[in-house]
Amino acid sequence: MCSTTEQQHQVEIVSKEQVLGRKPVAILEKIKDNLERLNEKMEVIIELQKHDHKDGPQPLQDAPLDVMTLLSMPDHLRKTAMTVCRSGRATADEISLQTTRARAVESAYLNQLVLMGYLKKERKGRKAYFYAERESEVET
Amino acid sequence: MGKIIAVHSYKGGTGKTLLSVNLAATFAKQGKKVCLFDLDFRAPSLFAILKIASAENWFNDYLNNTCDINKTLIDVSSRIPGKGKLFIGLANPTTEAIRDMSAKDRKWEMRALGRLLHLRNALLNEQKFDYIIFDTSPGLQYSSINAIVAADLVAVATTGDRSDVDGTSRMLKELYNLFEKKTGIVLNKVLDYNSESRRKELYDRVKNIYQVPLLGIVPCFCDILRAEGNFIFAQDKPDHPFSTLLNEMAKKIDANEVK
After folding, report:
1. Residue B29 to residue B84: CA distance in whole angstroms
2. First to last CA, chain A
3. Tell me, what CATH number does A92's domain have?
4. Is A120 helix (H, G, I), strand (E, B) or coil?
5. Is the ipTM of this complex over 0.90?
6. How far is residue A112's CA from residue B159's CA, in Å, rounded to a whole number?
7. Cβ separation of B149 and A70 shorter than 8 Å?
8. Residue range B118-149, pLDDT digits in tens
9. Tally of domains within chain A
10. Cα dihedral sign for B96, B102, B108, B109?
11. Which of A84, A138, A139 to mutate to test the interface with B (most CBs of B within 10 A)?
């Protein structure tokens, strides 16, 4: 049986763990999340500069991603957009597996398509999902 | 895993529907589970060829999101010899429906693409269909391009007509290649196809012009014209040379020879 002093000591230890263990981990996770978001934004800027976005389609709000739009897109974005259309809803990782291009590259193209209004982005926990339009997902 | 084939052409009257129906019947005769859809919403013809006057649900209804895909499927397997299965989904031929389909906006077309893409899961994955065949309308129509995007293989029906050759070449560069589609050419209505030297000349010419695999060369058969759309050759005349050619095309598609 534990004495009262021992019980108090255990409570103190748990409380120290909370302060020294769990909180710093949560802070580090938050920093990592923020860094990932910053990284994604940087990738978009780099890709926009690389492909001279002035010549590409101009940003639009909720522009429909129909086949004529796909046809008018530059090759690198069409490939990503078509893969999203086929997948319905996917992460940059999943898209990169299908296109066999690097995840960072796909992430940049996906974010560029979001900026153009062709795709939507939704965060669930640590993952970012991309999709063309909710209504295009078929309920049968 | 099954395949989706879009039968397309630059011009009308190149034999897309004849090819689609007979290819579907050929696969079914070989024991495959096949589904043929009429995507020529501006000039539906499958209902007339298959002599089905009315349907409870049309393929239009599926694209309009008013019914499930299974409700549009009509089982015509009893017409095909053997254990294969053949289902069809018809385009609504009424003037009202044609007018309605011609007036769709870009957002609707985007959703229609989503529903065509969904067929891979609903029919190929879940119901184990071996083939889905889309009989499309000619040229750059929304419904045709949607079908091409959703397909694994595009079978392009073309003739020797100068404008057709020119248009087909452009579509190869500016449509099928942009969507990274496997494409096979079917040269239809060929005259003077009897000698071996003529066959070789045509084969080389097609390869040279289009630079994609050739699915087949179909001579201009008077029997086909005489039939006036009343026969499905693969089913009604299995020994006809046209049926033999279709068997060869089906074999090439089945063996993934079009890359």
Report:
1. 6
2. 62
3. 1.10.10.10
4. strand
5. no
6. 42
7. yes
8. 999 999 999 999 999 999 999 999 999 999 99
9. 1
10. positive
11. A138
Q: Report pLDDT for A13.
A: 52
- Alpha-helical regions (H) of chain B: 16-29, 46-49, 59-63, 95-102, 106-119, 142-150, 162-171, 196-210, 222-227, 233-236, 241-254
Q: Inter-chain contact A67–B109, Cβ cutoff 8 Å?
A: yes
3-state secondary structure of B7: strand
The boundaries of the domain holding residue A15 are 4-136
From A140, which residue of chain B is nearest by alpha-carbon distance?
Answer: B68
- Residue pair B123/B35 in contact (Cβ under 8 Å)? The answer is yes
Give the best residue of A69, A75, A99, A140 to mutate against chain B (max B CB count within 10 A): A140
pLDDT in tens, chain A (140 residues): 444 455 555 445 555 555 556 677 788 888 888 887 787 777 767 766 666 555 555 556 678 899 999 999 999 999 999 999 999 899 999 999 999 999 999 999 999 999 999 999 999 888 999 999 755 444 44
Question: What's the whole-model pTM score?
Answer: 0.83
Q: Which of B110, B117, B175, B181 to mutate against chain A (most A CBs within 10 Å)?
A: B110
What is the residue type of B224? I
Q: 């940059």: which residue's tokens?
A: A92
CB pair distance less than 8 Å for A132 and B69: no
Residue in the structure block whose two tokens are 């549009």: B72
For residue A53 the two structure tokens come to 């976005």
pLDDT-based confidence at B166, cuts 50/70/90?
A: very high
Distance CA B32, CA B21 (A): 14
Is A69 an interface residue toward B (CB < 8 Å)?
yes
Residues on B contacting A at a C-beta cutoff of 8 Å: 65, 68-69, 106-107, 109-111, 113-115, 117-118, 122, 142, 145-146, 149, 174-175, 178-180
Which pLDDT value is given to residue A68? 94
- Which CATH class for the B3-254 domain? alpha beta
What residues have CB less than 8 Å from B193, skipping those under 6 apart? B199, B202, B217, B219, B220
Asked if B72 and B35 count as a contact pair (C-beta separation under 8 A), the reply is: no
